[in-house]
From TrEMBL:
GO terms for molecular function: oxidoreductase activity. It comes from Aurantimonas endophytica. Keywords: Oxidoreductase. It comes from the Bacteria. It holds the Pfam family DAO. This is D-amino-acid dehydrogenase.
């Protein structure tokens, strides 16, 4: 048994590496644990690269149940649920549906807004301090809509976002063609969302934060953590036959975070949400904005590795096999979006996002032991919220309980 008084972070994705850097920067002795190299096993390396500061609403909303049925009936729809997984998913789905209206919806919106407000500036600070400022640029996102009806239906949401301090500009069909000439002319119009940013390469961001953390003395153990065991003298991280004792431990283990919580006697309803994308290294078209295809649950971004197109939400369990047919469908849809897209040498990726039923991450002290913390459940927004999560978690670890109150695990353990 080795002993120590530092901080262990279980999970070396975008959230774990951002926190590791911020803690190491201020002199904490930090050890990162992950079964793979930083940013490789979870969704961090394969995300769309957006800093989506204006996305302040939970995914569940009034009318979501009927919308979901339509999505499930459409082979090219953005929602997939494996029927064999449905009994396991049912409690999560029930909470998800309850979030879609009334005070639950408003509470989730308030919490998410705390993360979104200032998140582009927080990300700029984080990247500058870590020496990777060149990985980020401020750029509006362009939401595109298939029809005038769907664009009109989205108007109330955009007006509420504007009232909350996230301005946008309506774009007609002619302006859409000027902004993005490579797009299909089938889209009816769009909305420019001005509070947005984009990274050049999501994997390079994780690598840069990891290198910056190492530069401040952080250590890394590439090993699968088997258990986290509190005791009177510290919190033990047990991995592959080796025990290390720490003063504090943060669980940032993505879809596996719920397993650790369950073993500790806590409820953490994080589920694995599969996502798919295809990257085209030589697309031979120019895409000028981060694009959101609002009626398809898909996004597109011009990144350093190429033009990335993907999205969707698949619920099949953390160990389910990914489906190559979904990549085939995304590739066909991509050609409809961009008729002149060169689809040669495409790179296909799939991963599982750690999603919460109320779309609100858990950034929290454990209810079981005050030396245990959680930073997980960011769903589609791990990159977007990583800088703010690091700020909130460091404040919480310094004793500022109010800073993290809206994200407490207690909301599931009452």
């Amino acid at each position: 048994m080795t002993t120590g008084d530092g901080v262990a972070i279980v999970g070396a994705g975008i959230v774990g590496t951002a926190l590791a850097f911020r803690l190491a920067e201020r002199g904490e002795a930090v050890t990162l644990f992950d079964a793979g190299a930083p940013g490789t096993l979870g969704p961090s390396r394969g995300n769309a690269g957006h800093i989506a500061a204006s996305d302040i609403f939970p995914l569940s909303h009034p009318g979501i149940a009927l919308e979901a049925l339509g999505m499930l009936a459409n082979p090219n729809g953005p929602l997939k649920i494996d029927p064999r997984y449905l009994p396991t998913l049912a409690p999560w789905l029930a909470t998800f549906l309850r979030t879609g209206s009334g005070e639950r919806f408003e509470a989730a919106t308030r919490a998410i807004s705390l993360l979104c407000d200032g998140t582009v500036a927080a990300t700029e600070r984080l990247f500058a301090d870590a020496g990777i400022a060149n990985c980020l640029r401020r750029v509006p996102a362009l939401y595109v809509y298939d029809s005038a009806g769907s664009l009109d239906a989205a108007g109330a949401g955009w007006r509420r976002k504007a009232a909350a301090g996230h301005p946008s500009t309506l774009v007609d069909q002619d302006q859409l063609r000027e902004l993005e000439p490579a797009l299909s002319h089938a889209f009816a119009g769009g909305v420019l969302s001005h509070h947005w940013g984009q990274v050049s390469d999501p994997k390079a961001v994780v690598d840069g934060l990891y290198d910056a953390a190492r530069g401040h003395g952080a250590a890394f153990r590439q090993a699968r953590v088997e258990a986290i065991v509190p005791s009177e003298t510290g919190v033990t991280v047990r991995e592959e036959g080796r025990d290390q004792r720490f003063a504090r431990v943060v669980v940032a283990a993505g879809v596996r975070s719920g397993d650790f919580a369950a073993r500790l006697g806590e409820k953490l309803p994080v589920t694995a949400e599969g996502g798919y994308n295809v990257t085209y290294p030589s697309p031979f078209i120019a895409v000028n904005h981060p694009l959101v295809f609002a009626d398809h649950g898909m996004v597109s971004t011009s990144l350093r590795p190429g033009l990335r197109i993907g999205g969707w939400a698949e619920y099949a369990g953390p160990d389910a096999s990914f489906r190559p047919a979904y990549h085939d469908r995304i590739a066909r849809i991509a050609k409809r979006f961009f008729p002149r897209l060169d689809q040669r040498d495409q790179i296909r990726w799939a991963g599982r996002r750690p999603s919460m039923p109320d779309s609100t991450p858990v950034i929290s002290r454990s209810t079981v032991d005050p030396r245990l913390f959680y930073a997980t459940g960011h769903g589609h927004y791990g990159l977007t919220w990583s800088a703010r999560t690091a700020e909130i978690m460091t404040a919480l670890m310094d004793g500022d309980e109010a800073a993290a109150a809206p994200f407490s695990i207690r909301r599931f353990n009452r």
